Amino acid sequence: MISEKVELLGKGLYKNIPDELTIHAMSTSTQLNYVGAEDFDGNMLDNILPSIIEEDINPRDLLEIDYQWICRCARFITFGPYFTTHTVYCSECGQVHNETRVDLRTIACKSLPEGFVNDIVLAKGDLIDYDGEIHLHLLTIQERINAHKDKLFTTPSGKINQEYARLCYMIHSIGKDKDSTPMAIKAFIEKHLSYPDYLTLVDKAMELTDYGLRAGGVCTCPRCGDEDAAYIALVDDRFFRPTVGDLKSGRDLRSARPAEKSA
Q1: What is the DSSP letter of 26?
Q2: 172 touches 135 (CB < 8 A)
């Protein structure tokens, strides 16, 4: 079975997860039983990742950025890097709705800086009115799931404000309280921060935690041939549904590697 050693983006930040994991290709039974399930993340974390990661870890303890990174690696190992998208975004043509095979290796990944510690500080003076430190951290995949389902952040329309929930889960210290709960963070924001401060906080939090895979990559526009067109490829169920053409292109790429080494 094909396997590969994968170095985690968050290496050095974990207590119970090694810096490098061995990832195996997905089996046919795994694909048939789990990938198409309604709860993609839940099945990936509870069934698929435990079956393809050689080391004994709890995938729910992974940082969100490493969860997506491992999913990407598993997709490459199992199917290859090619992906068929149905929409390309071109500066000349606008949105082009056309089946286009793209190379997922064009998706950039922003690594953590050297010496990164998962305690990100907004210094005094970073906000408009509030003059205190705020401490944030990168979310684990479980924290992200919890945030997106937290009914505490339900709006009058009945939908969960996932952006707000995510922010409150990222903050672990604000004001005099240390290691605050999302509920306490929410109460502090609504009681003590002005709306300009809230908007600034959202912007700064996004800027300071913007690591990991980007949402998409670059490709050639199928209409005009512009090589700076873009596509979106989120890590979801469709990410693991290659076409036969994608698979053949991946096979051809693997077949070409020995020839490249001997050239």
Answers
A1: P
A2: yes
169 and 235 belong to one structural domain: no
Determine the pLDDT at residue 245: 95
Same domain, 38 and 168: no
At 220, is the secondary structure helix, strand, or coil?
coil
Q: What residue numbers bound the domain in which 101 lies?
A: 3-109+212-247
Distance CA 145, CA 165 (A): 10
φ/ψ of residue 73, rounded to 5: -65, -40
Residues 97 and 160 in one domain: no
| pTM of this structure | 0.92
DSSP bridge partners of 88 = 96
Report d(CA 150, CA 37) in Å as an integer.
22
The model's confidence at residue 179, banded by pLDDT at 50, 70 and 90, is: confident
- Determine, yes or no, domain membership for 261: no
* Distance in angstroms (rounded) separating the CA atoms of residues 103 and 245: 12
